Structure prediction request, 188 residues.
Amino acid sequence: MAATDDTTPSTVKVRPSGRTLAVLGVIAVVVFALDQLAKRAVLESLSEGERVPFLGEFLQLHLVFNPGAAFSLLSGTTWVFAIIASLVVVVIIVFARRIRSIAWATVFGLLLGGTTGNLYDRLFRDPGFGVGHVVDFLQLWAFPAIFNLADVAICCAAGLFILLSLRGIGFDGSKAAKAEPETTASDS
Prediction:
């Protein structure tokens, strides 16, 4: 009978990286805070529908209250987005312990901060708990949607996610090895 190795990948317990958890947490808190501070400033200085040039016509402040998803789609299902966002937050928090890469910690920090920024609006803004409208206020020239800083963070996270995935960077920071072409007896 052969001895078993207790260090197989399925039995090895890996401790979470304090550094990557700290990066993820700090980025999430900063994104959430900036998003909420910007929303507060806009709510105090603009009325709904008002447009103010910020960077000329290229970027304007335009206050709207979004009851749905991007482009105000599915506005009657705000509570569904609140549930989905809550699940995303929980999954990120549970999954965070597996991340060993600062780049991936950045992705999930941006996603967590942006998701909690919009989730906060859905939970605590009018018209009520779970159906609150998200405060959107940024409008780019020739871009059909009005968005907020939480949305910017989520889009940056998606872009970085795609970049890291295309480069083959794992959650531990290692780069995936390229597959060697198989050689056959006739090749030698």
